[in-house]
Amino acid sequence: GAVVSQHPSRVICKSGTSVKIECRSLDFQATTMFWYRQFPKQSLMLMATSNEGSKATYEQGVEKDKFLINHASLTLSTLTVTSAHPEDSSFYICSASSQGLNPGNTIYFGEGSWLTVV
Amino acid sequence: ELKVEQNPLFLSMQEGKNYTIYCNYSTTSDRLYWYRQDPGKSLESLFVLLSNGAVKQEGRLMASLDTKARLSTLHITAAVHDLSATYFCAVFMEYGNKLVFGAGTILRVKS
Predict the structure, then answer these.
(1) Which among A10, A75, A77 has a CA at the least distance from the CA of A47?
(2) Residue A2 in this model has a pLDDT that exceeds 70
(3) Average confidence (pLDDT) over A73-77
(4) Where on the phi/psi map is residue A81: left (φ > 0), alpha (ψ -120 to 50), or beta?
(5) Of the candidates A53, A85, B100, B102, which lies 20 to 30 Å from A37 by C-alpha distance?
């Protein structure tokens, strides 16, 4: 079964509203989680690295005030898309591992969340 | 900044044939990952290559890593329809402690 779970798997929201996506590690503690965005037929682009108990590290070009990331516990990170617009419609994927990206450490990906902004 | 290039981006092949997907990257890295993605789904881990010369095989897929050439290959042997998917390589970037993904290779196996 999945070891990293995302919720919701699909969400439709109206323009201007906010939507929260959760990423949970189910049977391990993840000090670091990663959030990716994938547009149709494109690759995964890293948005930010979520660190438990501290601020997330955002990639260049990603608006930290628009994509709020909270990693309040060792098993949960949330991504909130604020004031969503249709161009934010995408597939959002999180990943997590128990010891970051250390060699030999397994990286687990969540099932992904489809966001449609209408 | 690390650049990861995959080729081909699209591959249509007949069942039973062999082919190779290439993943080149621009700066030094000692770690490379291969993933499979089915339409509408998330990523499935295929291989983790952790050292120069690493070779791993699972079924009809075999992956290798040459860190000196900054090249990884994913070789498909006697393709079957079930292998149709998008394949991504991802390279570990020490600066930033993150993975950088290639553009992906869409593989279609025709019967």
Answers:
(1) A77
(2) no
(3) 93
(4) beta
(5) A53
Of residues B35, B92, B98, nearest to A46 (C-beta): B98
Q: Which residues of B touch A114 (CB under 8 A)?
A: 40
- Whole-angstrom distance, CA of residue A43 vs CA of residue B23: 14
> pLDDT value at position B70?
96
Contact list, B33 vs chain A (CB under 8 Å): 107
Cα A115 versus chain centre, distance = 12
Tokens of A36: 């990716």
β-strand pairing of B71-76 with B19-25:
antiparallel
Share of chain B above pLDDT 90, in %: 88
Pairing of strands A10-13, A67-73: unpaired
Closest CA to A118 of A42, A22, A11: A11
Order of strands, sheet of B61-66, starting from the edge strand that comes earlier in the sequence? B4-7, B19-25, B71-76, B61-66, B55-58
CA atoms within 13 A on the CB side of A25: 26
